[in-house]
């Protein structure tokens, strides 16, 4: 009986400050799943919409310059990369039902690994194709005026550099920090349960 009282005293003195409740954990998982699915669906819709608009406006114009056609092809490739990667990863989030704590932590670690791969490789190729596509696509329209060409290409290159070297790392750090906080709190809870 004395051991039971000691165990009860230890149980009641355990520090649970900073640990979310089970309802908060379930809500966090649902919110995470919903946000990721929403973002993936939105990315797919934007990619398909861009491809449809490209073909709708420029498919019936046989007198396009080779640079414009190259720009369209590069832009369609960038949109296709976006559509493919988001459609492929959507299955993981759709199948994310009734996971145990350990399975959810493994799921988040795999998601973090996928985000790193996307940041290092997939996003780079998508940004490369879309930037080249933009520069090639509008060449035909701005080539006649030297000042307009210089202004356009200066703005386009500055925008690409801004997106590549400022926005992309900044967004990745924010997403990564958010994922790390979520993983740390869930690991802390999981360690308490074991």
Fold blueprint:
Layout: H1 2-13, H2 22-58, H3 66-94, H4 101-137, H5 139-142, H6 146-193
Helix pairs in contact: 2-3, 3-4, 4-6
Describe this protein with a few key phrases.
single chain, 194 residues, mainly alpha, 86% helix
Question: Can you walk me through this structure?
Answer:
The structure is a single chain. By secondary structure, the protein is mainly alpha-helical. The protein has one domain. Helices cover 86% and strands 0% of the residues. It is built from six helices and no strands. Keywords: Membrane, Transmembrane, Transmembrane helix.
Count of runs of 4 or more consecutive helical residues = 6
Describe the largest sheet: none
Shape: elongated
Q: How many strand units?
A: 0
Question: What portion of residues is helical?
Answer: over 70%
| Proportion in β-strands | under 5%
Order of helices and strands: HHHHHH
The assigned structural class equals: mainly alpha
Number of domains: 1
Average of the residue pLDDT scores: 84
C-alpha end-to-end distance: 24 Å
| Alpha-carbon Rg, integer | 24 Å
Regions with pLDDT < 50 over 5+ consecutive residues?
A: none
Keywords: Membrane, Transmembrane, Transmembrane helix
